[in-house]
Design brief:
Layout lengths: L9 E2 L3 H38 L3 H7 L2 H5 L1 H28 L8 H14 L2 H7 L3 H28 L6 H25 L2 H5 L8 H25 L2 H7 L1 H9 L15 H35 L5 H28 L1 H19 L20 H25 L7 H30 L4 H20 L9 E2 L9
Parallel strand pairs: 1-2
């Protein structure tokens, strides 16, 4: 039975459609998981060759402090990527808001961005293997530029066709789909160990170990984009649910109503700036961990690189639990306290990581040490906590705009995160250079997470959405 009309005062979350939108997030997290897991180590190795004329594996064995000396350069390259994103994401958000085509306003950007990124992505490890830093960095820049074309419109797609009070639950579902993409990349890293490429002589290095994950990621990205294109018809859906979107505006969790044609109210503007300020700080912490954890495991803990991938799986599984329940928690205590709870849990996890040391127990054929088991618990707690944060923060931002401005406000959200991700790799790289201590990583992250909790809890108001009733059962899967 197909139910096409929404009863007055009732909103429904279409789970089937939300899962399909999640294929956009599947492609995003798949690519970035491979990119963040492999590229910082590629850069570390290639700059070690340029500066010291030997590989990073030889440096690790003979003079490991020099590995820390090149991290600030690695940080600059990774930060340049994010600086470009800081500029491009708002541009593509605004462009897609104003685009009108037979396939929708977001889909053209998603398709073009996916195709070009997928073609360029496998050339990154190819140029690295041939010790061509210029070619590698150019390919990284191309991938980044076209992923920015993809990313903002893909993220905007969910709030485009989801009423405001339902966006936290919808965001949980699409983030779970995204973590499936991240998990796919992580599994590749378990079987194709980067450390088995890095920790051997130049003659023994096999290109297929590092090339295969990039090729598979490109193929899966293309498949996910075509699934999205085949199943989500933007224009048709927006027309079908326009009454639900209008009802969602009336039930939104905002201090003052949004006026499509008028200026933003002072109260809503202050709320937006507070959320973005706290977001900047938690991304300063989270991106620091994401950028340097691979090097931390290989060069500090002296463990096999697959341990990083297992960490990601553990954190991802905990994140799935967090995303699954975050919407229900927010319905009960509000989005503010859901985010605040996630931040304080994450602070505690990072504080524990400050006391982790290399085990010194040699277990690998190339001299790798046993991995500290405590980090698995740390990653599970961090994954759960940050799921609560990410699940509710983006809906809070797009709650403050009309449906005509979602791409623009998505640009604001990513401007905060990308500006943080521009600053933090360089800043932490300089901290590494000054301290010559890998333990600076968890200390830095703990401080930044704690500052974000302080800003968020003191500056953001807890405004709950007006009470609404959700449909259940077969109605929830109505198209």
């Amino acid at each position: 039975m197909k139910i096409s009309k929404t009863q007055p005062g009732i909103l429904r979350l279409n789970y089937k459609r939300t899962f399909l939108i999640g294929f956009a997030f599947f492609g995003i997290l798949l690519l970035w998981q491979v990119y963040d897991s492999w590229c910082p180590t590629f850069l570390t190795d290639i700059f070690a060759r340029r500066m010291y004329h030997i590989s990073s594996a030889e440096l690790k064995a003979g003079d490991p402090d020099k590995i820390l000396n090149v991290q600030w350069i690695v940080g600059i390259i990774m930060a340049c990527d994010n600086l470009a994103a800081l500029i491009l994401l708002p541009i593509f958000g605004n462009l897609s808001d104003r685009t009108k085509t037979p396939i929708g306003k977001r889909m053209p950007y998603i398709l073009v961005g996916t195709m070009v990124s997928a073609i360029a992505f496998p050339f990154i490890p190819l140029f690295f293997h041939n010790n061509n830093i210029v070619g590698m960095v150019i390919m990284m820049a191309i991938v980044l530029m076209f992923m920015m074309m993809y990313r903002n419109p893909a993220v905007s797609l969910m709030p485009d066709i989801t009423p405001k009070p339902l966006r936290a639950k919808a965001n949980g579902i699409i983030n779970i789909m995204g973590y499936f993409g991240g998990a796919a990349a992580t599994v590749l890293g378990i079987f194709l160990k980067l450390s088995e490429y890095i920790n051997v002589s130049d003659e023994a290095r096999k290109l297929w170990i590092i090339e295969t994950p990039f090729i598979i990621a490109s193929i899966l990205m293309v498949i996910s984009a075509f699934v999205l294109f085949a199943t989500i018809k933007e224009n048709k859906i927006e027309e079908e649910i326009k009454e639900e979107l209008a009802l969602g505006e009336k039930l939104a969790a905002i201090e003052t109503p949004v006026d499509d044609n008028g200026p933003m109210s002072d109260a809503n503007r202050k709320m937006l700036m507070a959320i973005l300020g706290a977001e900047f700080l938690w991304f300063m912490a989270d991106n620091a961990i994401g950028t340097y954890i691979g090097n931390y495991v290989i060069y500090y803990l002296n463990s096999v690189s697959s341990a990083t991938m297992i960490l990601t799986i553990v954190g991802g599984l905990a994140s799935v639990i967090g995303f699954a329940i975050a919407g229900s928690i927010a319905d009960r205590i509000g989005r503010k306290w859901t985010i605040a709870s996630g931040l304080i849990v994450t602070v505690l996890a990072m504080a524990v990581m400050c006391f982790v040391h290399p085990t010194g127990e040699i277990v690998g054929a190339n001299g790798e040490a046993a991995f500290p088991k405590l980090l698995f618990g740390v990653w599970a707690i961090k994954g759960f906590g940050m799921a609560l944060v990410h699940n509710c923060s983006f809906p809070m931002v797009v709650e403050l705009c009309s449906n005509k401005q979602i791409g623009r406000f998505t640009g604001f959200y990513y401007a905060a995160s990308m500006s943080a991700q521009t600053v933090t790799p360089i800043l932490l790289g300089l901290v590494f250079k000054a301290s010559l201590a890998w333990r600076a990583l968890p200390v830095y992250a703990t401080i930044m997470f704690a500052l974000s909790w302080i800003v968020f809890t003191t500056r953001v108001k807890n405004i709950k959405a007006r009470k609404l009733e959700n449909t259940h059962g077969i109605e929830a899967f109505d198209e």
